[in-house]
Amino acid sequence: MDAWPLRHLVLRTPRLELRPDDDEGLYELVDVARAGVHDPAVMPLGTPWTDDLANDNGFSMVKFYWGRRAQFEAKDWNISFIARHEGKVIGVQEIGARDFGVLREVGTGSWLGLKYQGNGFGTEMRIAVLQFAFDHLGARIARSGAWVGNHASNRVSAKLGYVHDGTVGLAPRGERLEHVRLRLDAANFVRPEWNVSVEGLAECVQLITS
After folding, report:
1. Is the pLDDT of residue 168 over 90?
2. According to the model, what pLDDT value does residue 145 have?
3. One Pfam annotation, family name (predicted)?
4. If 0-12 CB within 10 Å is exposed, 13-18 middle and 19+ buried, where does residue 167 land?
5. Beta partners for residue 19, in sequence order
6. Which of 85, 103, 107, 132 is the most buried (most CB within 10 A)?
């Protein structure tokens, strides 16, 4: 038994490599975030963590990901895949679940460095974890969400087969905004012509699918 079997997990797409976060990757991820994730005048994230970057140089961000790793449990888990293009960190793609062995549902979220946006990387990252969930873990439903006005994210979701599943009010900067909940059933997933390559799953599959 490996003390941390998730370290062997790798997802590969035509252009990207996704691995669960480690410390060296997190330090690179902080640099990507500090270079910009979104227009400062707009908050596209449910939790406004980017507002703190200028004050603590990414200290809170690193602690958040450390906390995610420390809280990992078989029945309540989240994997933060650091995405790399040509060896460079470009962002993070998350996937998580509670009681996956019974519910067979996952949730996803992601962000990209501003300079890497507009190249289809966000779509490719999400397809990678959706194929991972549906084809390798046996998930039946994937959930996501985006602000009503986040047209880019909502276009990606619609293209992949997601449907609206209601809205919820959130206030990331103290003002109410409408967040669209999205649902994708495995049978409705609009697949690309390529398939994600998955390595190292045998070492950690029991942790994820129990």
Report:
1. no
2. 84
3. Acetyltransf_3
4. middle
5. 82
6. 132
Using left for φ > 0, alpha for ψ between -120 and 50, and beta otherwise, residue 203 falls in: alpha
Rg of the chain taking only CA atoms, in angstroms: 16
53 SS3 class: helix
Q: How far apart are CA 70 and CA 149, in angstroms?
A: 34
Residue 129 CA to residue 132 CA, distance in Å, equals 5
Count of C-beta atoms within a 10 Å radius of residue 154: 19
∠ CA 183-186-189, rounded to 5°: 80
Specify the amino acid at residue 81. F
> What are the beta bridge partners of residue 81?
20, 93
If phi over 0 gives left and psi between -120 and 50 gives alpha, with beta otherwise, what is residue 86? Answer: left
Question: Rounded CA gap, 153 and 46, in Å?
Answer: 13
Pairing between strand 105-112 and 141-147? parallel
Domains belonging to the chain, first-starting first, are 5-209 (3.40.630.30)
Q: Token digits for 134?
A: 């549906």
Q: What is the mean pLDDT of the chain?
A: 89
